[in-house]
Amino acid sequence: MWVEETVARFQSSHIRMCFITYSTDGQTVLPLTSDKNRIKNGLDQLRKIVPDGHTFMQAGFRKAIQQIETFNSGNKVPSMIIAMTDGELVAHAFQDTLREAQKARKLGANVYTVGVAGYKLDQITAIADSPDHVFAVENGFKAMRNTIDALTSKVCLDVTSVEPPTVCVGEPYHVVVHGNGFQNLKKQDEVICRFIFNESTIIDEKPTSIDNNSMNCPGPKLEKPGEGYFIEVSLNNGKTFFKSNVSVTSTTCVSTRMGLQTRMRTVQSLLPGEDRKGRQFPGSPRK
């Protein structure tokens, strides 16, 4: 089953999933959860469902929006909606779906569409965030397996590493943030690199360059040895941020007689406490 194979690609325990079907009405088969047993049970239920009736995709979007609003408690958290159809939407259903998709975007969701058979390409393209968010096959459900790799490479949004992991105290520098899903950005001027020293000290910078898997950002000046920060990234002008455990820490650098610099790692001091995501802050508190 295409859904089952796609779900298997998402290995992170922090990802919550929701299964929704729609025809004339929408039905939430599985509310948002990260519990693997509940997800497995939800997949079992999906196998038994044969939707019939009208192709009212807007009904499915409404259920998805309810889940986002309920579980995010009003906060804008990165979300992805993958809307699949095997039929054409009548005029009023298409217009209603466009409106619901826009509501979902305002809540921080990226919208992808998958056309299987009998769909209208212009409709699913208009509903999705962009043509790059559209996956369409002409040979029905059996051909859908060919879309899994391409879809999951775009949907999996995260920050994986940073270069360099240590920088010299008092010196200007840039960091290269590596990750997945950066191609989801709509406008480069909406991208923000966020540097979190602690819960009260946060610095935002605009990247100087971006590609599908990395971005180059000017780093904030570090004034003390052992000072550090976590890095987060927003692709939608700060509406939502992709959190990570990727961090940068300062080191003491001294000049040698040859005029070269040698980095001397200092003992990393940690803040007494974690942030709301359970991350232990690197470095000393910034005053």
Describe the 3D structure.
- Mean pLDDT is 82; it is low at 257-273.
- A hairpin with a 2-residue loop joins strand 9 (192-198) and strand 10.
- This protein folds into 2 domains: 2-155, Rossmann fold (3-Layer(aba) Sandwich); 158-264, Immunoglobulins (Immunoglobulin-like, Sandwich), CATH 2.60.40.10.
- The protein is built from 6 helices and 15 strands.
- The strands form 4 sheets. Strands 7, 9, 10, 13, 14 and 15 form a 6-stranded mixed beta sheet that branches.
- With 287 residues, the chain is an alpha+beta fold.
- Helix 3 packs parallel to helix 4 (91-106).
- The chain starts with a helix and ends in a 23-residue tail after the last strand.
- It comes from Rhinopithecus roxellana (Golden snub-nosed monkey).
- This is VWFA domain-containing protein.
Mean model confidence by pLDDT: 82
At CATH level 3, the topology of the largest domain is Rossmann fold
Domains (count): 2
Query: SSE string, helix = H, strand = E?
Result: HEEHHEHEHEHEEEEEEEEEE
* Biggest pleated-sheet summary: 6 strands, mixed
Under CATH, the homologous superfamily of the largest domain reads von Willebrand factor, type A domain
Classified by CATH, the class of the largest domain is Alpha Beta
What share of residues are in beta strands?
A: 25-35%
Report the end-to-end length measured between terminal Cα atoms.
54 Å
Q: What would you call the shape? A: elongated
Number of helices: 6
Helical content (DSSP H or I, runs of 4+): 10-25%
What gyration radius follows from the Cα positions, in whole Å? 22 Å
Give the number of DSSP strands.
Answer: 15
Q: What oligomeric state is this?
A: single chain
Low-confidence stretches: 257-273
Identify the CATH architecture of the largest domain.
3-Layer(aba) Sandwich
Structural class: alpha+beta
